[in-house]
Design goal:
- Belongs to the glutaminase PdxT/SNO family.
- By secondary structure, the chain is of the alpha/beta class.
- The protein has a single domain, classed as Rossmann fold.
- It contains 5 helices and 12 strands.
- A 7-stranded mixed β-sheet has the order 2-1-3-4-12-11-10. A 3-stranded mixed β-sheet has the order 5-6-9. The protein has a two-stranded antiparallel ribbon with strand order 7-8.
- A hairpin with a 2-residue loop joins strand 11 and strand 12.
- The longest helix has 13 residues.
- It starts with 5 loop residues before the first strand and ends with a helix.
- The mean pLDDT is about 95.
- Bound molecules: glutamine.
Length: about 200
């Protein structure tokens, strides 16, 4: 048990700053990560929302694709929001050509499943393991999870679709808790990192 784990936020593209703030509010030491060497210094990693095709391309360009796949497969705790959830999927239903993922969660995801930017919405979401009521789910061109393997725990659904999952040390949500000022999900992730390090 490590009381103050160091948690990186993958800083290739997306809403990195908001995650750094949410992690600090949840009592973690948080820092941006964009170079392979920096992976050695972290106990866990957040993969932010943004655009998964861009994150995928930049991860290859920055030499992070393979090292990150290995760390995740070896059990480093990771939390992906929205585009980050897509990056943790073992399979994308509708990838752009050449789009790759880090994998780590045995699930098939559908990109942009909840519609376009102007169909973005907020909704209360009840998440298993989060106490004191639903979280405010912010869905922005959000993916949903089409199907999961036997090892995957479904933590939340919205409108009959899976929007939060966990497999071992990998956590993912279709929505963006870092944009709400409610740090309960980041707190859950920080606890996962503490327990693992
Ligand atoms: N808010 C988001 O992260 C949007 C994700 C985006 N639709 C993608 O495919 O990466």
């Amino acid at each position: 048990m490590n009381p103050s784990p160091v948690i990186g936020v993958l800083a290739l593209q997306g809403d990195v700053r908001e995650h750094l703030i949410a992690l600090a509010a949840a009592d973690a030491v948080a820092r941006p990560v964009r170079r392979p060497e920096e992976l050695a210094e972290i106990d866990g990693l957040v993969i932010p929302g943004g655009e998964s095709t861009t994150i995928s391309k930049l991860a290859v360009l920055f030499g992070l694709m393979e090292p990150l796949r290995e760390r995740i497969a070896a059990g480093m705790p990771v939390y992906g929001t929205c585009a980050g959830l897509i990056m943790l999927a073992d399979k994308i239903l509708d990838p752009r050509s050449g789009q790759e993922t880090f994998g780590g969660i045995d699930m098939i995801v559908r990109r942009n499943a909840f519609g376009r930017q102007n169909e973005s919405f907020e909704a209360g979401v009840t998440v298993t393991g989060i106490e004191d009521g639903p979280v405010e789910g912010v869905f922005i061109r959000a993916p949903w999870v089409e199907s999961v393997g036997a090892q995957v725990e479904v933590l939340a659904e919205h409108g009959g679709h899976i929007v939060a999952v966990r497999q071992g040390n990998a956590l993912a949500t279709s929505f963006h808790p870092e944009l709400t000022g409610d740090h309960r999900i980041h707190g859950l992730f920080v606890d996962m990192v503490r327990a693992a390090s």
